[in-house]
Structures are given as C-alpha cells and as structure tokens.
Write a structure and sequence with these properties.
single chain; 224 residues; alpha/beta; five-stranded parallel beta sheet; two-stranded antiparallel sheet; 9 helices; binds adenosine monophosphate
Length: 224
Amino acid sequence: MNPLRQRIVLLGPPASGKGTQADRLSSTFGIPHVSTGALLRTECARGTLLGREADAWTCKGLLVPDELAVRIVAAWMKENGPRFLFDGFPRTVTQAEHLDKALRDLEAPLDLVILLELPDEEIRRRILERISCLACGATFSASLHGHAAGDPCPRCGAALVRRNDDTAEAIEERLRVYRESTLPVVGYYQKTAPSIFHRIDAGEGSDAIFAKLSELLEDNKDEG
Ligand code: AMP
C-alpha cells in the first residue's frame, strides 16, 4: 500500500493511543512516524543541550516552548522531507500555524487531521498502568501485558521504564495543558481544514481503531 498523500496529523490527549496507532500505520503504509515527545526524549537521553532544556519542561508535564518544538520538527523535515505521521505535534495553535506555513512553502498541504478522543478517567488509568520502551517507543499496560519497569522490551530487548512524566502529579498538569493549549488546535483545524478533519473514539479496541484509521488513509489514497 502506498497512499499518494502522506501528511497526517494525529491529535489526542496523552495515552489516547496516538503512538501505538502511528507505529502500526507507519509499518502498514510506509509513512514515517514522528513523535516529538520521542525526539525530545532521545535528545534528553543523549544529554544534548536541547535535551536538557526540554527535560526541564517535560518532566513537569509542561509543553516545551513552541520555538523548541518547531525547531526539532523543522530539522526532522529538512532531513526526511514532507511525508509524516505526526504524533504529538502540533500541540499549540502557534505550532499549527508554523506547520501550515512550512507546508505552504513546500506546496505540500496536509492530507488528514485525526482526533483520538478519550475521557479523562480512562487517560489517568492508562497512564498509571503504562510501561514504556524509550528505545523503540513501544508501550505496554502493566496489568494487561504483565510487564514491569526493568523487564526487557519484548520488541527490542532494551530495558522497559516508567516515563518520568507518567506520574499522578504530572498527569493532572498534562491534562490541564491539553485542555488549555491543544484543544484549541482541534478548533483551528475544524475551522481551517474541515474537509480533512476526523474524530475517532479512542476507547474502542486497538484493532477497531486501526481499521478506522486505515480506512481514512485508504480513502485518502482513492481521492488523491
Ligand atoms: P508525548 O510523548 O507526546 O506524551 O510528549 C511528552 C512530552 O514532550 C510532553 O508532555 C511535552 O512536555 C513534550 N512535547 C512533546 N511534543 C511537544 C510539542 N509539540 N510541543 C511542546 N511540547 C512537546
């Protein structure tokens, strides 16, 4: 499968499954999965200046400054070109405006914006259960999959961890930040790109969500 148009933004609160779905879509459709959170964690693990700067915000559940998020995405696009499945970007209206401008300059408009919706209670439950692999980006539910921090990742073998922002305190901050800064991005796309905007209930099973997303990507191919 090789959709003609391959610029997709996945929006949604923390733990709505953006990363998991983006990974699956990326393998199936061959579109690069770009998680700004993962890019920032890599910088942080490498101990770069950008990583240290970002960690001061991320560990508290706060967004890094727009300038930093835009910079890391611009660097990624310069290296990889305008084919992407963004997970966690844009997270503010300013970032969305920057993305629009960059894509206008490249004459490469967005093809799809998809919002994964999930109630706060379910977000809290999922985050407190979440065990992550920072090496390959896989995530697991402690109770569902029986993995704990320190176990080897079943996918790549690196040690699983609890992310330092997957804490009860940071969740509340991340939910507040989502409502304040990222929900306006939903309004932005509803207004500026209603024909490519879609909502999906992220409380359904992972396979059902994947099927719906795949349908949107395939529809997109037919239109292209
Ligand atoms: P995520 O892995 O998407 O949950 O992101 C983890 C953290 O990285 C967020 O809580 C923010 O601190 C930071 N982050 C990721 N993407 C962005 C972005 N587009 N703008 C600002 N901060 C971001």
